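Handout, tutorial session.
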Amino acid sequence: MTKELDFGYTADHARKNADTVLPAIECWPNQYKRDYIVKIELPEFTSVCPKTGLPDFGTIVIEYIPDEKCLELKSLKYYLLEYRDMGIFMENIANKILDDVVKACQPKKATVTGTFTPRGGLKSVIVASYEK
């Protein structure tokens, strides 16, 4: 006999804030034709679980190969701070940041990695990637 588990998560929880419009990420013109990797780390990322309202803590790493534009860090910082009080699943965080980075600077390649503090002994690492 198998027991059916019900954790009370709904499609509404999963979708919550996934489509929220955040402040624009600004860019500046790339000065080099060669490929090079830009790696940006935010070791004190915070958001909120959309179900429990409890805080989630983690590190966000954005790596990209610029094409014609590079990310401007001050606007990126303000963009990432908007997640602080947002109820959103970890999987949606990595994918939304990637989508917004790609929309802003149209890199040749980009990866967003979210490494989140363990909860209940489980560590979550979400990796979302894009390539032209």
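The second record follows below. Compare its token runs with those of the first.
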Amino acid sequence: MQRIFPWSLPVGPQRTGPDSWLFTVWAPSRQRVSLFFPETGREMAMEPLAGGFFRAEAADLPAGARYLFDLDGTIRRPDPASRHQPDDVHGPSALVDTAGFDWTDGRFVPPPPDRRVYYEIHVGTFTPEGTFEAAIDRLDHLAGLGVTCLELMPVAQFPGCRNWGYDGVYPFAPAACYGGAPGLARLVDACHARGLAVVLDVVYNHLGPEGNYLRDFGPYFTDRYRTPWGDALNFDGPGSGAVRSFFIQNALYWLREFHIDGLRLDAVHAIMDQSPLHLVAELAASTAAFEAATGRRTFLVAESHQNNPALVTEAAAGGLGLDAVWNDDFHHAVHAWLTGERGGYYADYGSREDVIAAAAEGFVYAGRYSSFFGHVRGLSAAHLPADRCVNCLQNHDQVGNRARGERLVSLVGRPTARVAAALLLLSPGAPLLFMGEEWGEDRPFLYYISHLDPDLVEAVRRGRKREFAAFRWQGEPPDPFAAETFEASRPDWAKKDDPEHAGLLAWYRELLALRAGSPALRETCRRMTRLWPLDAGLGLAMERRGEDGRILCLFNAGRRPVRAKVGTDGPPVAYARLFDSAEERFGGRGGFAPQRMETMLSLPPFSVVLYKREKGTSI
């Protein structure tokens, strides 16, 4: 028997010739494993290797051939590292040559951190067709908007064709209903041709409940921990070496085979691991090694509610070495301030001071007591570059986990949505938009599933109702299993050309263009930004400083006018107007702000004005 260390074998099918493939599977719970090809009835015994691995090379297999693993002659299961599941999660795996795509992106370089503008989509609802290829037709819109990173919600194979992607059970298999591996490769190549990086959401804290056969192979899961979504993965118990390798291989697979530029790591606070080297840190080190070997630039973005700056602190300085983290505090602070909602986690937010803290320092909860969590939460990230925080007004969670999936514009109206957009796009940090946000999409984004198990469907319905109780939302949520719920979540692309929506779209486009061209608005040192309240109402002022001077941003999110005083007690300071949200091109009734301002300005309700300090005036 050959001696093999658990981390030394690549799992999944590897093409070794025109019609030959090498199959490797980790199945330490089994004595015998065979390959079974259902289309021909052919069966082939696999060679047992040390560490619980089994391997076999088979010929006369064209791409697309189906196969299963026969486990001890008792059950047949798809490949845990399947590259394609054409017959859904319970059917056989199929062979696909993920290395055979003819790439044209050899000169593409992802944007640096200060130029990252993320745009999150759900592939299945982003277009009427709901496929990777159909999304290509919308890329010119994104590039023209000023987006630089397309972020895909999880695409790993899930049950049915209606799912957010967090119920994936085949981490290596792009969803067949989206177009599988060829479709994903074409989408990434098309993004790169337009200067767009691609970020893929991956889930390494749990797997979905249906079609999850990993327990039949080995100790992929542990009963030492639980996550809100099911059993935790085994990253620190017996057999964990191969499990860790499985998921690290998965991350590198997306980067290598599909030229993905960045990974968004779902809920890293639920990746349970007490190893000396946490899985997240090992993943960061592995991607750094991949960069060094290939010369490609990649990046890792975490989702976490812990407000832990160690996630985005360099490994050399004692951190885990990720590049950025979703900053829920920014969303919650702005949302609670503008909507007045105080249910659930919004109970911790709502003041203007929270918005100032989120914009100026990153985390609102940086050692503060949280009434929602019931403990002191977070540490300060103010010393880190601002681009380590990804800020948003909407994302799949914050919209889709509302009982009725309302967009922000549906809650506060278009004038307030303009103020919110300016807060997002002009504040320090990397902005993230959610599909349709830029034109004020008011169709909901809802939670949906298409599980094949009726008992599981009913369990999901009950679970969703329990989740909403803390928010005190009224009414019955839409049925997550209904096809109508899925269809209702598609953005209406015709609206972007509708005069009623065109003003908000122009506002987003112009602010993103201003941000792209202004070093002050892209400045990542938080000391170069200052925020302060205006009057006793809902007014804010923000000054951004950089190589191009100083930009003054004045916001009024309230129904009453707000006075803005500028300048100092010293020599006069003059500001030249850049933008006024009241301009007709932005959907307003006509600009009100003077072209030049020195001392005082009255901001009308629901307005934003941008000024730049003129050269030659006092600094």
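Points raised in discussion: The domain at 113-204+243-512 is CATH 3.20.20.80 (TIM Barrel).
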